[in-house]
Amino acid sequence: MTTDPAELADRLGRWSSGRGPLYLLLAARLRRLVDDGELRPGAALPPDRVLASALAVGRGTVVAAYEQLRVEGRIVRRQGSGTRVAGPARPGPRETTGAPVFLHLLEQQADDVILLACAAPAEPPPVLLTAYERALSHLAEVTGDIGYHPSGHRQLRDVVADHYTRRGVPTGPEQVLVTNGGQQALSLLARAFVEPGGGVLVEAPTYPGALEAFGEQAASLRTLPPGLHGFEATTRPPSRRPELAYVVSTHHNPTGSVLPPLARRRLAAAAAADVPLVDDEVLAHLAFPGQETPPPLAAFGETVMTVGSLSKSVWGGLRVGWIRAAKPVIDRLARLRAVHDLGGNLPAQLAAAELLPRLETLCQGMAADRRTRHDHLRAQLARQLPQWQAPRVTGGQTLWVRLPHGDGDWAACTATAHSVCGEYGTTTRRWHGVSLSHTHRNRSDTALRTRSASYAEDMTSWWADRDGSPAPAPPRSASRPMVAASGRMWLAASPVRGLRSGGPGDEQPQGSRAAPAAASPQASAEWAGARRRPGRHPSLHRSAAGPRVGTAHGFSAR
Fold first, then answer.
1. 518: pLDDT confidence band, cut at 50, 70 and 90?
2. I want to staple 119 with a disulfide (CB 3.0 to 4.6 A). Which of 169, 437, 438, 483 is the partner?
3. Which residues of 288-315 are buried (b: 16+ CB within 10 A; e: fewer)?
């Protein structure tokens, strides 16, 4: 069976970001995949033209790379038989994730590449050091505690419970499970509620880490526009009722939208019938000055499960997250967690307990800077890329930008040639948009205006290059919307330099395709334009359950 070019593009990562001829860079990355066993002996590699299309390079680059590996004895090429990894075919270990959303964290970071795949604080705030100092003083007084707390340290669980109670959701510590970040929270929820082949309803586009967590359970992803509009009609037939639904209700990742109060009430009421609903609130406290943080969905429905984390609001290195849910759910999740992880880092949890009561004040203190970056990036884009549409948002760390033509897949590969580098992956249905993060600082810490101007100039450069190349296939018309079907594409970049991609999908684990969800006229206008193409290139995310959808925004490793 031939290796899927989309999956291979994911595995290749940032292969073109080094120095030297492209064919040598490609050969080097393929060599590593072969030597590491990622490409198994006997595995059939994609044909020259197909892989070249997936990587957005000329066929000659792939031919030369293959020839280099053939001379080294790592692959075998025979006319009529294709290209295969040298050696007899044999079963290998279980495949690991190929999603760039995670693989980029494992890449060696080159000095001349600034990664902007994560829209998150670029450095820990000074208040975190103070919190750790207080936490360590408390730790010195601990006696009679072996340190294993699968449900989380009681002090932090009390603080999280108080946090939700202040926001209008009465909560006790028995309703809180502390996790090692929001990503572990999503993984636990997926293991608890999703059976192989079971349906999971997600937004399109959405946070790719959630798609990977559901994909690990071999979920069948079904999609709706942001806010899960159409939820009631989609879940009404018992045969269509999903096992789980996932929504980012506040400062949606990637579009930045905020679900209105009435829509929150309706969604919570509809989900209460029989569909467990997860409300991802990791971005909830990133409102700009003058904007109110809305109540969580749990304020409108007791059955809603809420995921929180400090990775976006404080720092990604503070691996503390949590799940707020009914006590029976928390007890079940704690038993699942105990098998894989006997408990989190206690000093970090104690530091989080110091920070959480002051979280709103901390976020408000950084809100003006986030809005300044947001406004300046929009101004630079309007001046240098007036064809791009970048609607204003009310919070978060990114912009959602609509491209006038083409798609983010193509743009990502072209941008890479201009050192606007990001994550790699593939997609079968692309969205005509990119997501730009405005959170990262230049390594030399130059002025924000200089960083944003430099970034916009790079974007202008590769966009001009794109316009001088053959135009991509025309998008689907709005009359045939593919609302978040199964693309894996997205792009995220920052005012400095960087690009990434990903998105959600609805393909079956075995590769069969489910029909795309129906779209409202408004959703059609906003989300239409996805299209299929067998060859895709290296800038996008991939779900373990199948390709993903839509362009995404500054992803966060949670």
1. very low
2. 437
3. beeeebbbbbbbbbebbbbbbbbbbbbb
Q: Which amino acid is at 115?
A: L
Residue 35 structural domain? 5-85
Q: Does residue 28 sit in the same domain as residue 133?
A: no
Q: What is the pLDDT of residues 239-256, one digit of tens each?
A: 778 999 999 999 998 889
Kindly report whether the global pTM for this prediction surpasses the value 0.85. Answer: no
- Tell me which residue of 161, 281, 182 sits closest to 153, measured CA to CA: 161
- Please check whether residues 234 and 311 belong to one and the same domain: yes
Cβ 382 vs Cβ 390: under 8 Å: yes
| Total domains in the fold of the chain | 3
Residue 43 φ/ψ region, left for φ over 0, alpha for ψ in the -120 to 50 degree band, beta for the rest: beta
* Contact yes or no for 242/210 (Cβ under 8 A): no
What is the pLDDT at residue 74?
92
Q: Which two tokens stand for residue 73?
A: 């004895």
Domain end position, chosen among 360, 384, 411: 360
The values of phi and psi at residue 298, to 5°, are: -65, -20
Same domain, 370 and 334: no
**For residue 357, pLDDT beyond 80:** yes
| DSSP 8-state assignment for residue 549 | -
Q: Do residues 322 and 444 share a domain?
A: no
400 with 253, same domain: the answer is no
CATH number at residue 130: 3.40.640.10
Tell whether 342 is covered by a domain.
Answer: yes
Q: What is the DSSP string of 176-216?
A: EEEESHHHHHHHHHHHHH--TT-EEEEESS--HHHHHHHHH
- Contact between 292 and 286 (Cβ < 8 Å): no
Q: Burial level of 167, CB count in 10 A (0-12/13-18/19+)? A: middle
Q: Which residue's entry shows tokens 């393929």?
A: 30
